[in-house]
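User
Here is a favour to ask of a fellow structure person. I am asking you to supply a protein in sequence and C-alpha cell form. Please set it down just below, with no commentary around it:

Assistant
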Amino acid sequence: MDYETVSPPDFGRSLTGIGVNLLCRDVRAMAGFLQSVFGLEVFRLSDDFAIIRHGGMLVQLHSDATYRAHPLLGLLPELPPRGAGAQIYLFGLDPDAAVARADPDSVIEPPADKPHGLREATILSPEGYAFSPACPS
C-alpha cells in the first residue's frame, strides 16, 4: 500500500489488529523525533496527521484539532506530559544507538540488560510519551 496516496477510507478499511493513535500538539515535531531518534518511517506528514511505520506496525499521529468532536480530547491534561502510564516498545531497535541520538534530557532510563532477556532504554517524546527501543541482550 502506498501510504502517501491511499485515500483515508481505503487506509481505514485496511487496518487490522491493534491500532495506536497518539494525540499531539505538534505532529511535525513528534514525527521528527520518531524519525531522527528511532529511524521510524514517516508518511503523509502534515500539521494534522502522520502515519508512522516500524516494521509491520503502524502508529497514527493526530493533532488535537482532528479530535475536536471526540470525547477523548476533553480528558487530555492541559500541561504535558500526556503519555504518562503508557510505554511503547520498539522491538528490534538498538537502545544504545537511540539514546545516543536523543536529547540527553529526554532519556529517563538509560540502556540496560533486563532480566526478561532484552536490552532496553526509555526515552520521552516531546509530547511525554515513553518509547522504549529494545533488542535481545
